[in-house]
Write a structure and sequence with these properties.
The chain is built from 4 helices and no strands. The chain is an all-alpha fold. α1 (2-35) crosses α2 and α2 crosses α4. The longest helix has 34 residues, at 2-35. It is elongated. The N and C termini lie close together (7 Å).
Length: 95
């Protein structure tokens, strides 16, 4: 499996970078819309982006924009996704 990661490493980094940037921007966008009482981003969307690899960016956006920090499922769920993704990556890498 490490050969697969080595072969597609750049694409994996681009994928993760884009998803983390998307998660960060979604938090900022939703915070802005919350202040203006406009259309909001579904909470499910944050978790989908996080589960696809953008959990770190979503958590960073959560604390930078101070948005969704009171919701327990964001406060504990998103870091749990980071841990699960790191464990899965480690398992694939050292397999």
């Amino acid at each position: 499996m490490s050969e697969l990661i080595a072969d597609y490493g750049l694409w994996i980094l681009i994928w993760l970078g884009c998803l983390n940037l998307l998660g960060f921007c979604l938090m900022g966008f939703d915070k802005r819309r919350a202040r203006r009482e406009g259309w909001r981003v579904r909470e499910r969307s944050f978790f989908i982006v996080a589960a696809l690899g953008g959990a770190l960016g979503t958590v960073l956006g959560m604390y930078v924009f101070r948005h969704k920090t009171r919701h327990w499922y964001f406060k504990y769920g998103l870091p749990a996704i980071i841990i699960a993704e790191a464990a899965a990556f480690g398992w694939l890498w050292f397999r």
